[in-house]
Write a structure and sequence with these properties.
Keywords: Membrane, Transmembrane, Transmembrane helix. The protein is α+β, with helices and mostly antiparallel strands. It is built from 13 helices and 11 strands.
């Protein structure tokens, strides 16, 4: 086993242990270090967690072994992606996530997570060290960082950083755990070292991630499709009678009936949503785009005199206008695994560890809150634009006053 493989496995095992506890409660203390923590330390950690919970904000706190393997930037990536996963699972508008070492000093990773991604609040992105080059101890770090996250979430001023003295307790009469070193004439106060390359690299990485995922909180506005795909003209053309098959047989008559249903579904959609071309809900114009594409396919097949039949068009589950090599893919959503059609670009994004952009629509009519279209309960979500059932069937079930005729009587 290579060092890289061993490292990745250890990282995944740590993640699994934390995730298992977080599914039940917000506080995780790794068993590897629990026995080395004093009662005062455990009490301070639990009290800080409880006080955060009392604010009504969702939080997750992990006390973990020292993160000395590899570099700061690698752990920043691991913890920030983990934090965003927990935010998605929580379903909240914002989530507080803190990872803190639990040994003699506590390097910490604190995140305020929104749908835009994990953000390191002011007062938390720096490598927090004392002037003697120590990180602050866990019983001070955890309450402080959680207070910073709560302040960032509520838009209030962050707390003052605690003072502490890192000299050996045996060299003096007072205990800094109890008195925080405030009685010393020259306390060893915190120095915020934001100039290190590692901290800067992590901050830039988080900024890029935030920009990459800015679409999460915005309604989809492009591509607009109406003009670029000439959809209004396509809708008018789709109203023309479906041609009878050039080579009539059971298969082509079934396709003829499908064409009638697609035609009826398009009429029902545009009647139910007459503003489909101008609406802020881009699901409607994507629905029209899918239906007119299917209509054109049916007409081509019915006019075909010879040659190989053309496969039915497929549409990307995440963004229906994506058409590049759509194939079945197992996609994890909200703890479930769904087999859906995904285009080559979206599959490539997922393989690289990114979350592909998706069709974002109003949560409900008139709402400005953006959600993925498949989080609603309508024809588009139920069909997945063809991943779960044909869109024309779902539209007729929802929008047509009565189901279309069974087809041509023969």
């Amino acid at each position: 086993m290579t060092e890289t493989t061993s490292y990745a496995r250890a990282q995944q095992q740590l993640r699994d242990r934390i995730r298992g506890t977080w599914a039940q409660q917000p506080l995780y203390i790794d068993e590897i270090i629990r026995s080395g923590l004093t009662e005062n330390q455990i009490t301070a950690i639990r009290q800080a967690s409880q006080e955060t919970e009392d604010t009504g904000l969702t939080h997750f706190l992990a006390i973990i072994p020292g993160l000395r393997v590899r570099g700061y930037g690698d752990w920043a990536k691991f913890t920030s992606e983990f934090a965003f996963d927990m935010h998605e699972a929580s379903g909240q508008k914002q989530t507080l996530v803190l990872f803190s070492e639990g040994e003699t000093s506590a390097r910490s990773f604190a995140y305020l997570v929104t749908d835009n991604g994990p953000v390191v609040p002011t007062g938390a992105p720096e490598l927090m060290k004392s002037s003697s080059d120590d990180f602050i101890p866990v019983e001070l770090a955890v309450p402080y960082y959680l207070q910073v996250l709560v302040a960032a979430a509520k838009g209030t001023e962050p707390p003052q950083a605690p003072d502490f003295d890192t000299r050996d307790v045996g060299d003096r009469n007072e205990d800094y755990i109890e008195r925080f070193g405030l009685d010393n004439s020259d306390p060893d106060t915190l120095v915020f070292g934001a100039t290190t390359v590692a901290a800067l690299g992590a901050a830039l990485w988080l900024l890029r991630r935030r920009n990459r995922y800015s679409w999460r909180t915005e309604l989809t506005t492009k591509p607009e499709l109406v003009a670029s795909r000439n959809l209004k003209k396509a809708v008018a053309e789709a109203a023309a009678p479906i041609p009878e098959p050039v080579r009539p047989d059971d298969e082509t008559w079934a396709l003829y009936d499908r064409g009638r249903r697609i035609q009826d579904a398009l009429a029902a959609l545009t009647a139910a949503h007459p503003d489909w071309a101008e609406s802020a809900d881009f699901a409607h114009r994507n629905g029209v785009f899918v239906l007119v594409t299917l209509d054109r396919w049916v007409r081509r097949q019915l006019r075909r005199r010879s040659g190989r039949a053309e496969d039915e068009p497929r549409f990307c589950f995440l963004f229906p206008h994506h058409r590049k090599v759509v194939e079945d893919h197992v996609l994890k959503q909200s703890g479930r695994s769904l087999t859906v059609g995904l285009c080559a670009d979206c599959r490539e994004q997922l393989a690289a560890g990114h979350d592909p952009e998706r069709l974002m629509v109003p949560k409900r009519p008139g709402s400005t809150r953006a959600v993925p279209y498949f989080h609603r309960d309508d024809a588009y979500a139920l069909s997945g634009f063809g991943s779960f059932q044909p869109l024309d069937e779902a539209v007729l079930d929802e929008m047509s006053p009565q189901r279309s005729a069974a087809g041509r009587k023969r």
